[in-house]
């Protein structure tokens, strides 16, 4: 019996599901960006990209601990999932505590003080993205195909909520951030049920 059969991972199936989910996420990502681009001014679109640029500085460490958690989960170590998730949650809290006081300074330096609410709203995603990395690392070790399902769920939620909030309710920037935040939250709930 081969290794993949012993641990219950169907390699080809998992690879196919993840591949299809990522290809579909390209299409949904383009649709989401198109909704934002068509609903915002040039300045607002620039703010959208800047918000995500600033966010990336505070999520840069999100994948560091999950790498090790995945290795321990794959080896069957007791408590590896809980330790990996809680450690990454602690890192996210520190990153958020550093991020929030810097928001007024960053927005003032960039001359976009009227968008300070958006920068504060996106702070929720710091915690979400750290948790998402931890959950995905733990699931990748035992149930890799579920990552594809989670991505499909998140992308469907993102586009559906984006259409409602960005197009119908005419809230382009707030709608985009809320759509992404809720989509990742739904993905986290799906993953949490699998852990």
TrEMBL record:
<feature type="transmembrane region" description="Helical">
    <location>
        <begin position="173"/>
        <end position="192"/>
    </location>
</feature>
<keyword id="KW-1133">Transmembrane helix</keyword>
<feature type="transmembrane region" description="Helical">
    <location>
        <begin position="116"/>
        <end position="135"/>
    </location>
</feature>
<feature type="transmembrane region" description="Helical">
    <location>
        <begin position="54"/>
        <end position="73"/>
    </location>
</feature>
<feature type="transmembrane region" description="Helical">
    <location>
        <begin position="12"/>
        <end position="34"/>
    </location>
</feature>
<keyword id="KW-0812">Transmembrane</keyword>
<protein>
    <recommendedName>
        <fullName>Polysaccharide biosynthesis protein</fullName>
    </recommendedName>
</protein>
<keyword id="KW-0472">Membrane</keyword>
<feature type="transmembrane region" description="Helical">
    <location>
        <begin position="147"/>
        <end position="167"/>
    </location>
</feature>
<feature type="transmembrane region" description="Helical">
    <location>
        <begin position="85"/>
        <end position="110"/>
    </location>
</feature>
């Amino acid at each position: 019996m081969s290794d993949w059969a012993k641990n219950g991972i169907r390699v080809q199936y998992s690879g196919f599901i993840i591949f299809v989910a990522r290809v579909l996420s390209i299409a949904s990502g383009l649709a989401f960006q198109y909704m934002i681009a068509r609903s915002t001014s040039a300045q607002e679109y620039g703010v959208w990209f800047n918000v995500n640029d600033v966010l990336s500085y505070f999520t840069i460490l999100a994948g560091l601990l999950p790498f090790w958690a995945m290795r321990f989960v794959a080896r069957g170590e007791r408590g590896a999932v809980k330790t990996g998730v809680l450690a990454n949650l602690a890192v996210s809290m520190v990153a958020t505590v550093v991020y929030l006081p810097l928001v007024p300074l960053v927005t003032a330096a960039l001359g976009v003080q009227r968008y300070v609410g958006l920068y504060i709203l996106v702070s929720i995603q710091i915690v979400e993205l750290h948790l998402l990395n931890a959950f995905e690392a733990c699931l990748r070790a035992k149930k890799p195909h579920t990552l594809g399902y989670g991505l499909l769920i998140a992308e469907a939620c993102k586009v559906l909520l984006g259409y409602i909030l960005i197009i119908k309710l005419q809230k382009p920037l707030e709608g985009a951030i809320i759509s992404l935040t809720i989509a990742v939250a739904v993905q986290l709930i799906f993953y949490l049920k699998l852990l």
